[in-house]
Design a protein that fits this description.
The protein is mainly alpha-helical. The protein has a domain of about 100 residues. It contains eight helices and no strands.
C-alpha cells in the first residue's frame, strides 16, 4: 500500500513539475509582448523596429534626467549650497532656521543678499546640468531649457515658506 501511495505521489510531483516547466517556457515575456507593437509602429513611421526601440530607450534616459531635477530634489540637494552661501555649518542647521520661514528671510537674518544665495544654488545646478551634457546624457538644447526652468524653480524656492518640523 505504501509503495502505491509513494508511486502516486511521485507521479503527481513529476506531472506538476513538468506542467510548470512547460508553462514557464511558453509564457511570453513583457519584452516579447511589446516587440510586435514596436515593430508595427516602426513600420508605420517608415523605420525599423530596432531604430524605434533605440529611440524609446534614449527618450527614457532624457525623461529620467528631467525627473532628477525636480523641485523636491533641488530642495534636498541645494540646501547644502545655500547653507555654505549663508556661512552656516551644514544643511541641518539651515533646516532648523527655515522652520516657518523662507530662504530669503534667513538670508536677510544673516546679512547675506538673497540674490547671493539664489545665484550660488543656480551656479551649482548649472554645473550639474553641464556635467550631464559633457557626459553625453543631455543635449545642449535640452540643457538650456532645463537651466531656464530650474532657475525659475530656485526663485520660487527662495520665497517658499518651509514648514516647521514637529519633534517627537
Amino acid at each position: 500500500m505504501k509503495k502505491v501511495l509513494l508511486g502516486i505521489a511521485g507521479a503527481a510531483v513529476l506531472l506538476t513539475a513538468t506542467l510548470g516547466f512547460s508553462f514557464a517556457q511558453s509564457a511570453p515575456t513583457k519584452a516579447q509582448e511589446k516587440r510586435p507593437v514596436i515593430d508595427l509602429a516602426a513600420s508605420k513611421l517608415g523605420i525599423s523596429g530596432d531604430q524605434l526601440a533605440e529611440a524609446l530607450k534614449e527618450a527614457r534616459k532624457e525623461v529620467a534626467v528631467k525627473r532628477g531635477l525636480q523641485l523636491g530634489k533641488v530642495v534636498r540637494d541645494e540646501l547644502t549650497v545655500a547653507a555654505k552661501a549663508l556661512g552656516l555649518a551644514d544643511a541641518k542647521a539651515l533646516r532648523q532656521e527655515l522652520a516657518g520661514s523662507t530662504l530669503t528671510a534667513v538670508a536677510q537674518k544673516h546679512n547675506v543678499a538673497p540674490a547671493t544665495v539664489a545665484n550660488a544654488i543656480k551656479a551649482d545646478l548649472d554645473a550639474r546640468i553641464d556635467a550631464l551634457v559633457a557626459a553625453g546624457k543631455l543635449t545642449a538644447e535640452r540643457a538650456a531649457t532645463l537651466k531656464t526652468r530650474e532657475h525659475a524653480k530656485v526663485d520660487a524656492l527662495m520665497t517658499r515658506e518651509f514648514k516647521a518640523r514637529v519633534s517627537s
